[in-house]
Amino acid sequence: MTTFPRLAAFALLAGLVAGCSSGGWGDYVAAEGSQKPAAPLTVEQLSAKVGCTPKMQVEADDLRTGYCKTEAGQFFVNTFASEKLKDEWMDRAPEYNPHLVGPRWTVLGPLEVLEQLKGPLNGDLHLTDHRVSQTPVPR
């Protein structure tokens, strides 16, 4: 059985959560040395960091999801309107699949792919219990 059907199911789950959630774009992180808050990274910006032009799957106010395929493998990039929405989404995501997580974004894919994306995206690897993995990533 391939991983792709599972990934597609996660994108569908992301869309369902977006339809049930509320919130705004209020949780910005201040840019270093700046008085103005910086906008969160978009699906396109995150994807570009790993050499992908995403194929958009979900375009909602609270959630955007893009599918990527690179030399590293296949994965989905999700961005959220707030940290609270990201946390709610992660609470509903299947616990058997790892996630790469950053400020208001998640990336879903096979563990081998996420390990390769961890450095370029500067994300935290969350395994079965949605907590940060302490497993070192081989370089």
TrEMBL record:
Residues annotated as signal peptide: 1-26
Keywords, in A-Z order: Signal
Superkingdom, natural source: Bacteria
UniProt protein name: Uncharacterized protein
Source organism per UniProt: Nonomuraea phyllanthi
PROSITE patterns linked to this entry: PROKAR_LIPOPROTEIN (PS51257)
